[in-house]
Write the C-alpha cells for this entry.
Amino acid sequence: MSFFRFILYAIVPFLPIVCRGQSDVYEVTTGAIHFHSDAPQELIKATSKNLVGVIDASKRTFLFKISVASFAGFNSPLQKEHFNENYMESEIFPYASFSGKIIEEIDLTKDGDFNVRAKGKLSIHGVEHQRIIKCHVMCRSGTIMVQSDFTVLLADYNIKIPRIVSDKLSPEINVSINAILSSRPSS
Amino acid sequence: MFRIALVMLLLGSWLARGQKPFTRDYALIESAAGVKVNALAQDKTGYIWIGTDNGLICYNGQRFQKIQDSIQKPVTAIAVSGNNVWVGYSNGKIGVVTNLFVQPMHIDNGPSSVITSLSTNGINVLLASTEEEGAFVIINGIAARLNTANGMSDNFAYDLSVISATRLLAGTDVGINDMALVNNKIVNDVFTTKQGLPDNIVCVIRNIPGTPQYLIGTQEGGIALYNSENKKIGLPRPDGSKWAYGQVNDILPLSGKRTWVATEDGYLLQLDINDTFGIDVRPYYYPGKSFKKLLADKAGNIWCGTNHGLTMMTGEYLSGIRLGQPFSLYDATAMAYNDDALWIALKKELYQVSLKDTGAKLVPVFSAKATITSLFKDKDGRLWVGTLGNGLYYEKAKNKIEKVTGINELGADESILSIAGTSDRIWVAGIKGVEELSFPVNGKISLVKHHGKKTGIGSDYVYQLYADHKGNIWMATDGAGVCMYDGKDYHHWNAAFGPGGKVAYTITEDVNGDIWAGTMFKDLYRYHNNTWENLKRPEAQYADINISAVMANATGEVISVYERCIDEWYPQSHYFRHFNGALGMGIDSTSNVLNCAAKDGNGNVFLPYQHGILEFKNQGRQYDIRPSVHVVHPLVYSKPIPSGKHKFDHDENYVGFAFDGISYANHERLNYRYTLQGLNEGWIYTRDASVSFPKLSPGTYKFRVQVSLNPAFERPNEDDYEFTISAPYWETNWFYFLSAVFVFIIGYLYIKLREKRLRSISLLQQERMMFEYEHLKSQVNPHFLFNSLYVLSILIEEKKENALTYTVHLADLYRNMLTHSKNDLILLQEELEILMNYIHIQQTRFGDALHVNIEIPEDIKETRKIVPLALQLLVENAIKHNIVSKAQPLVITITAVKDEIIIRNFIQPKMSKDKGAGIGLVNIRQRYALLTKKPVSYGVHENEYIVKLPLL
C-alpha cells in the first residue's frame, strides 16, 4: 500500500485533537503603536495608545489589534482626515491587526530577554499578508514587554498614493510597537 | 492583447567588481513596477510557466501569453509533469491547464489557504503544501490532510519533497518533518534547531539529483544539508559567519556541484559544493529585487521570479566584468591571463585587471613604445609582449619587462603578430616569418630556427600561432592558409578550404583536439577526423566584418568573435548561440583586433567588449540550445479550433495549423519548415508560425513542423499533428461498393432478361420459319394440290357455281396463310376463318365423310388469341392420319372453354399413311412454349385423339 493511498483511506476521517492547555494568557495593559512616513518633502508621524492584544504563552500564539481611527499626532487635522478617509478608509476597515505565532521555542513564563520572530497575518486596510516580524521580548515576573520595528509597504496593502503627494508620503511606512502585557488571572 | 513591458537593466555598473552574470529583466505587465512572480516551471515541450500575482503566464522565449482562468487569484504554485500543468492559487484552489485555460479542479476536503508548493508524481497524485492547513495528498479529486492532527510539527508548510512513494519531507515553521508510512502508520521525525538545523523556519527543501542529500533553505539561518539515508543534518563549511543574504526562497541544484540560491534580500548565490559540504559562495547582489523562484532551462539560462517580474540570468555560460569609465576595451589590442588577473593591452599601454571580487580596475603595468599586438604567458609564468614595429619584450624578472635583443632575425623594429609556447620553445610570428626561440637561460635567448616562406610555411605573414596539446605549431597565414609544423614537416590543406582559405586569421584547438580556423569571408573551419569542415553560420554573410578571433573553452563550446557579434558553438546542439546588441544585455561590440582574447587555466574564455570583459564560461553540463516547436492548435477556415480534434468532415477541408517556436537562446532567428504527409513530401521553409492547406481531399494526413536556429535544419526538433478528412458518404468505399453491387445487379438482370428475350425471339422466328416452311410445303404438297385441282375439275364439270366458290376459298386459304403466318398470335376468330376456308375445300372433296363441329362461344372468338394456323394444322393432321369415307365419316369437334381450345376426333387409323415430317404438333408445342407457360397437351383418350391448346 502506498503512503498516499494509506493516508487517503486511514487518516482522512481523523478527529481533531482539541488541546486546551492551562491559561497562560497575557493581556496588553499598556501598548502603543507609532508610525512615521519619511518622504523627501514631509515627515508624517502618528501614534495610538489603543493597542489591545493577548499572548498565549503555552501555545506561543498572539493577537494584537488597534483601532485605525485612534491614531493621533498628524501634522494637521486635514492630514488625519485624509489618513482616515482616503488612505486607510477606517470606516470600512476600522482595525489593523496582527495575529500568529512565535517561531522561537521560548518559555515566556520565565524571566529572560529574547529576540524572536513573530509570524502571522498582518491585516491592514482589509488586506492580509503573511509577515515575519522580529521582536524583542522581555519577560519579567509575570509581565511581558514587547518591542518591535518593522516596515509596511503601502502597495502591498492596496493603499494608493495619489501622484500629487508622492513626494510627501513615503511608499514605505516605518512602524514601531511597544507593549506591556500582564498575566491574566486564570479563569 | 496581453502586452508586455520589457525593461532591460544592467545592474552594478557603478560597482565595478568581479565577474557578474548578465541579467535581463521582464516586467510581465505594463506597469513599470511589474508583478510578483511566485512560481516557475518548464514543461516537456519547453514552455516556461510563470505564476504571478496577476495570474498564469506562458512564455516561449519571445512572447508572454496570459492564460485565462476563472479563479482570478494570485498563482502561488505550479506543478508540471510532461506537458500537463497544474496551478495552485492563493485561495487554496487548484486548477489544471486545458487548451490555454485554467480549469478549476473539484477536490473533496481540499485546501482553502495559500498553496505554497505543488508537485505531482505525473500520474494521479498531487501534493500540495499550504500556509495554514499543512500538506495535502490529492488522489483522483479526493484530498487527505497531513497536519498537526496527525503528527506534523506545524501547519504552516512551505515546501514538500517526495523521497519515495512512502516517504516525504515537509518544510514548516517548526523544522523539517520527515514523514514515512511504516506498517500503515505515519512515522514522523521532526528536525529543528535542537537537532542542529540552523533555523526552524524551513522555506525550501531540494534534492541534489542523484544523491540522498537534500538542501534545506531557511528563513534566517541560510542553508543546511539533510541526508535522508542517515537522517543527519549537515552544515556547510566554512561555518561560523552569520548568514547575510536573507531568507532563502529557492534553491536550484544543477547537475555537478553547482547550485544557485535565491534570497528575499536580493541575492543570487552561486554555490559550488564539494563532497564534504564545503561551500564556495559567490554572491551576486541585485538591489531592490527580491528573488522568489529559480528555474534552469535546457539552454542554460537561469530564470528568476522576482517581486517585479522575471529576470533572465546568464550565470551558467556568460559573465561580465564591467569597467568604469574612462576605459573602453573596444580599443583593446591584446589580452592574456595571469593568476586570477588579466593582462590587457590598450594600444601602447599594458594593464592588469584583477578577477577577484575585490574590484576590477585597470592597473597600468607597462608602457611600450609601439602598439602591443600580442601577449603570451609561458609555462613558467613569464609574460611575453609583442609590438607592432618595436620588437619583442619579455618579463625578465617579476614585473620587469625588457626587450629581447641580440637575435638578428628579430630586429629592434620588428613587427610581432603572435606569440606561442611549447614545452621548451617560444614561437614568435611576424611579417617576416616565425622565429623559434629558446627559453631564456641566464637572461640569454637564442634563435633555434627561422621558419618562413622559403622553409616551407609558404608565407612570411603569420597572423596567429597556436601550439596544440601534442606540441604541433599551427599557423594562420596570409597567403598560405593554415599551416602546421610538427617539428619536422610543414603541412598544408589548401585544397580543403574555400576561396578565402589562403588567408587565415585565427586558429585554435577545442577540448576534443579539433582545430578551428577562421578564414577570410567569415568562413569557420573545423579540422575533425582529418577533414576540414566549414561550419560557417549561414547568416554570417550579413555580419559586417570577418572573424577576428576563435577561442574554445574546456567544455566543448567554441567562441567566434566578429566586430558586432559573437557566436558560441554548442557542439551537442550543432548550433551557434548568437550574442549581439539586440539581446538587450549590453553586449554591443567587441574589439576588432585579431586574436584579442585570453583563456584562464580552467579554460574560461575572456574577450574585451566596450564596457569591460566578457567571460564565456565552461558550462556545468551540455546545454542544448536547439529550439523546440509546438503545434498549438489546428485551424479550420483560418479559425482556431481546440487542439485534440483529429477528424474533420469533408466540408472542413480548409485545414491550417498555428505552431509556436520555443527558444531561450535566439528566438529572433527561428526558421521553420513543414510538410503535410499525404499531400506532398517536400519541406516548405517559412518564418511564419502558421500555415493553411486549402481544399484538402479526403484522406489521412500528418502535419510535421521542424524548427531551427538557422536555415540548415541540423538535428531539428519537431512536432506533428495527424488528422483525417473524412470522405462525403458518396465518396466512401462502402458507398462505392454498394453502388457497384447495385449497378452490377441491374446490369446482370437486364442482360439476363434481354438475353432471354432475344433467345425467345430468335427461337420463335426459327420455329415460325420452320412452321411456315413445313406448312407451305404441306400446302403446296402436290398431293394436296392435285386433290384440290381434281376436286376443282369435277366441280367445274358438275357444279360450275360451286367451283367458283371453291376457288375463292382456296385462294382465301392461301392468302390468309401467308398473311397470318408472320404473326405470333392471331385472334381465334381469324384462325377460325382460315379453318373454315380449309374445311370448305376439304368438305368439297370429302362431302359427308367429313364433319367438323365448331362450338365456340362468340366472346371467346373475339377476345382470345391463338397461334396462327394451329387449328388448320390439327384438322389437317386429323384428315391426314384418319380414314375419311362415307362408311366411316371423320368427325372433328372443336370446343372452347375459358382458357383452352380442344380439338378431338375418333381414331380411324389409315392403312397407308401420308408421309409427314411429323413436326406439326411439336412445332405447335414449341411455339406455345415460347409464348406462354400454359401447357399444350395431346394424346389418345378412350378412342379419341384429343389436342388441347391454351387460349391466350
Observations:
- Helices of chain B lie at 453-457, 733-779, 782-798, 800-820, 828-846, 858-863, 870-881, 920-931.
- Chain B is about 15% helix and 40% strand.
